[in-house]
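Complex record, two chains
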Amino acid sequence: DAGITQSPRYKITETGRQVTLMCHQTWSHSYMFWYRQDLGHGLRLIYYSAAADITDKGEVPDGYVVSRSKTENFPLTLESATRSQTSVYFCATRGGARIIEAFFGQGTRLTVV
Amino acid sequence: GDSVTQMEGPVTLSEEAFLTINCTYTATGYPSLFWYVQYPGEGLQLLLKATKADDKGSNKGFEATYRKETTSFHLEKGSVQVSDSAVYFCALKGAQKLVFGQGTRLTINP
């Protein structure tokens, strides 16, 4: 039972390139989230999704795009990567009304050079 | 909007010391509250939770009590171990999403 899988685990990309971080869940949880973790800022929400084809902005959405055509996948795309987007990215899921806690993936460490 | 404030770290203790990490929140109504732990190189794991006032969450020797009067959810452990070294996050559940504090790095020395 894999739960949440993020890929890749590590990624180095150049400024201006497009890069997509993948998130896949096996639980069919309704909610999915993307957070970034930076020293001094804790976890900040980028985007979230309440169900397939429903997405909404978090507190730091600029420069990112998401989609959710299927319940189990929630990819995060950096359209034109900048050095300020160097961070550790975490995907998380939450089941819905009855499952109130979130479950996190292992993270993707992204470095933009 | 909803927010969580937790004590700044890093916190360094000796093994078997008593631990308190303070957490206070601002929210509409009475949100569910959580403590998550992040070990090096890993994602966040749920440590404990409380869903209503005066609830006490507990797990692995850690405890936290939901205090409505003081809007607090402080994390405590009576005797810490080296294996407790990690980053601890306090969080609340808003209408749809979780809101996290900044995290507190805890180091336990043998």
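Note: Chain B has no helices and twelve strands.
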